[in-house]
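Moderator note: this is an archived Q&A kept for reference. The question asked for a predicted structure of one protein chain; the sequence and the answer are reproduced below.
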Amino acid sequence: MRFPYVKARFLHTINASKLKTTTLHIQSNTSQIAVEKSCLDLLQACNTFPKLAQLHTRIIKLGFQNNPLVLTKFTSASSNLDAIPYAMSLVFSVEDARVYDAFLFSTIIRAYADSQSKHNAIFNYNLMLGYGISPNKYAFPFVLKACAGLRDLNLGKAVHGSLVKFGFNDDIFVQNTTVHMYCCCSGGVEFARKLFDEMPKSDPVTWTVMIGGYARLGQSTDAVILFRKMQIAGVCPDEVTMISILSACTDLGALELGKWIESYIEKERVLKTVELCNAIIDMFAKCGDVDKALGLFRSMSDRTIVSWTSVIVGLAMHGRGLEAVSLFEEMKESRIVPEDIAFIGLLSACSHSGLVEKGKQYFSEMTKQYGIVPKIEHYGCMVDLLSRAGLVAEALRFVERMPVEPNPIIWRTLISACRVHGDLKLGESISKQLIRNEPKHESNYVLLSNIYGKMLDWDKKSKIRAAMGKKGIQKIPGSTMIEVDNEIHEFIVGDKSHDQYNEIIEMVNEMGREMKKAGYIPTTTEVLLDIDEEDKEVALSRHSEKLAIAFALLNTPPGSPIRIAKNLRVCGDCHSASKFISKIYSREIVMRDRSRFHHFRDGQCSCRDFW
């Protein structure tokens, strides 16, 4: 009769046991979650390698080495401490690969893409695919970033194909990164533009990436054209867009467009970061208005070393060496520690202003006082400093004592000095050696050809030109750009394609007549061709600088400044002619050549004929 009672007690005991077990299980899970959260919080706050090592031990003790979330956070913390290989020692010690997921691999790929070992980002992307894990949308931007850093176009194309295969070709963030990748790879800008044009949707980042790509590659005209299309499309640029387009203006010497962009920034209240302010200063300095750059610099409340360096370099380019030196000393007094780039600007300023002793002093100060190991650019500045001052023998001794191997630029600087200062045999010897070392570089042949022209050895000169033709090497033609009514016009020697070509030539001829009346004598020694004097004069009159100036005289108001940018060093005859033109036509002519600015006013040049 007691059986039902015993049965009831038995069932009650079992249920109570089950309840207790369930409660313990819940408590265990809750405790486990709390421990996991604590571990993740510690990883988030980890800021030293010893702490990371301690957490590594803790992870293993707690058995979290198979926890994907912990592994991902550990990898991220290791990346922040530049200790990615250390993280990999834990991640790939896992025996069960099923713990790996797309988020973990995305974190690994991102870590390597942001490091110097970008090839490992590609390796881990392939490893992820090998484990059968499909990438998520967070992985591709970093895989593409690695491709961009490696400058590998074929690799980039393969990754592009992969992202299309996985269905991420419509994701705008992935598309923007793909455009950036193509812009960074040699020969990839056309693929970038094709993708840009085919994108169904775009945002300000899309436009900025493409404009920035053009600007970095020196395709500045394309950058400006695309920026104008961006405005027509009603897309609002941000400060990054502005920095890119200012860089394009700087490259083109397009001061008026740069001024318009500055006013646009003010009008649209674009965020004026320090980087944007530095870009504006750099644009004004390198487009010919260094006083405006200096004024903006003085108005800045927060200046970086880049701010100071931009103005020092700008003053150097304008031949205002003493002011550059003064600003450098002011920078030191402001307790800004000069970096190697600041010294490059400073030494360049000394070079363009003939401050030989000052240059030597600062070169010594750089190494002894600031402990900066000179780079090849610093040595190049010193060789340029000595060469411009006519101290060719001392420059050669300096090169021979350099602790690093001189690069071709330094040797070409010496050759140019040999030609200018008459040490032609030395120039010939160095040029021949350069040709042996760089048989495909056109500058070496041009320098040797010019040396023979200076020697009046037309037979050897013609042989050099013939050798260039045989090897398919062409001389870079001199070209000059000028901005009129917000449009860039480029003039190249021998190019007759300009709409106003006939009127320009008539103006060139008028300029020649007026200059001769004022005492101008063409520097026919600049024409290193075996032709008669009259033909030499005609050849000189067709130089791109004179064509651009003639165009400006025809198309700009009387008395207004003329600003031109030359891709090569201005020749002696165009320099002399510009002085005469500035006086005859009452125009200030601001000319930027490959290395500096010349301001021509009332028959004088700011360089005082030292350039």
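Archived answer notes: Residues 98 and 131 are 9 Å apart (CA to CA).
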